[in-house]
């Protein structure tokens, strides 16, 4: 019986994993993952050697203190204001790992035998066996899609599912922006809170304050959802933000499409043109932001009525340099005949400006 050397097997596995992690197999339950795609497209590495990703932010200025700019005459006494308005955010990076374990027995069914040396050969009829089984290929395909699903779920979650995991976007864009902390900076509604370290939110059940309100009651007649989103856009750009990502659940998009369709106009040929009458609609966009994109994960989370709008320059995935999608070949335990692969990510999801993002819910 022939065999495939361990180094050659690792090379084959790495090539296949690189493909499946990037492209994904033709699985029947695979959903689009726009949040994962957008965050990984805009990643910004950071150097290791520190516990947190930290930076300074400022929302209050000396002019916010009474008596900073006052009139005077002759020898009137003047007050002086100290500048102590800079605070620092700090996000601890987290280490994530996904592991693959295949027994040598399973690989033999694929026409592959593993040796702990560099000799390489195969079963006599290995190609014929692979056509019918493909154990290694199918297992790596499974692993690649599973890794992307796990990353996507983690980046949507709030971190409460696992203290050692990366807190996702709902840990930053919470339903109530007046409570808790983000990046170690308190944003509570108590006296002395940093009101500017809060995102926008229109979510049911919250008290009506300067930044929050009840969920949005959509209406084809009143166009309430459309008008609210236009008003919110002005608030999201008020402090220099440039929101450019809109991720919504199916129910939110349904309501938005009904409002847009209700005020649509027929073409001159009405419904009698020679071309087919199309029931679909072009993507709906918000000027200055972009298209509203359906994220199926929101439906899976029970948040089909939600929409998240954020500025990708101020919410970023920050992997440690050379520590994202790192493929490892663990040495097998001496008493187990197995083939092992590991992929690790060392990363944090950070936000360095809060008041240019929003969370919206329809009734």
Task: Report the end-to-end length measured between terminal Cα atoms.
Answer: 66 Å
Whole-number total of structural domains:
1
Oligomer type: single chain
Annotation, overall tally of beta strands:
17
What is the helical fraction, as a range of percent? 25-40%
Structural class of the secondary structure composition?
A: alpha/beta
**Poorly predicted runs of 5 or more residues:** 24-29
SSE string, helices as H and strands as E: EHHEEEHEHHHEEEEHEHEEHEEEEE
Shape: flat
Biggest sheet features: 7 strands, mixed
Rg for CA atoms:
27 Å
How much of the polypeptide forms β-strand, as a percent range? 15-25%
Task: Give the rounded overall mean pLDDT.
Answer: 81
Number of alpha- plus pi-helical segments? 9
Q: What spatial order of strands do you see in the largest sheet?
A: 9-8-17-13-10-12-11
């Amino acid at each position: 019986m022939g065999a495939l050397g361990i180094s050659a097997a690792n090379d084959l596995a790495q090539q296949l994993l690189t493909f499946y992690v990037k492209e994904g197999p033709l699985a029947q339950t695979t959903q689009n993952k726009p949040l994962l795609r957008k965050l990984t497209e805009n990643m910004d590495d950071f150097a290791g050697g520190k516990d947190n990703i930290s930076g300074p932010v400022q929302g209050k200025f000396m002019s916010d203190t009474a008596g900073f700019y006052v009139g005077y005459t002759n020898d009137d006494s003047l007050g002086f204001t100290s500048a102590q308005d800079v605070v620092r955010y700090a996000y601890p990076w987290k280490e994530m790992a996904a592991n693959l374990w295949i027994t040598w027995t399973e690989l033999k069914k694929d026409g592959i035998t593993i040796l702990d040396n560099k000799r390489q050969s195969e079963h006599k009829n290995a190609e014929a066996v692979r056509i019918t089984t493909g154990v290694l290929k199918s297992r790596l395909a499974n692993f690649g899609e599973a890794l992307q699903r796990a990353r996507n779920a983690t980046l949507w979650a709030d971190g409460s599912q696992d203290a050692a995991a990366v807190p996702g976007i709902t840990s930053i864009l919470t339903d109530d922006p007046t409570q808790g902390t983000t990046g170690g900076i308190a944003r509570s509604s108590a006296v002395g809170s940093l009101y500017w370290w809060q995102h926008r939110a229109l979510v049911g059940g919250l008290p009506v304050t300067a930044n929050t309100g009840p969920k949005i009651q959509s209406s084809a007649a009143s166009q309430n959802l459309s008008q609210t989103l236009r008003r919110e856009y002005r608030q999201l750009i008020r402090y220099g933000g440039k929101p450019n990502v809109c991720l919504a659940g199916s129910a939110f998009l349904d309501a938005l499409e009904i409002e847009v369709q209700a005020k649509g106009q027929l073409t001159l040929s009405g419904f009698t043109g020679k071309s087919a009458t199309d029931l679909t609609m072009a993507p709906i966009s918000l000027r200055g932001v972009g298209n509203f994109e359906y994220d199926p994960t929101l439906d899976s989370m029970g948040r089909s009525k939600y929409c998240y709008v954020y500025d990708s320059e101020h919410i970023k995935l920050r992997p440690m340099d050379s520590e994202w999608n790192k493929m490892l070949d663990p040495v097998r335990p001496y008493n187990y005949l197995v083939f092992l692969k590991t992929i690790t990510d060392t990363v944090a999801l950070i936000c360095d400006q809060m008041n240019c993002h929003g969370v919206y819910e329809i009734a």
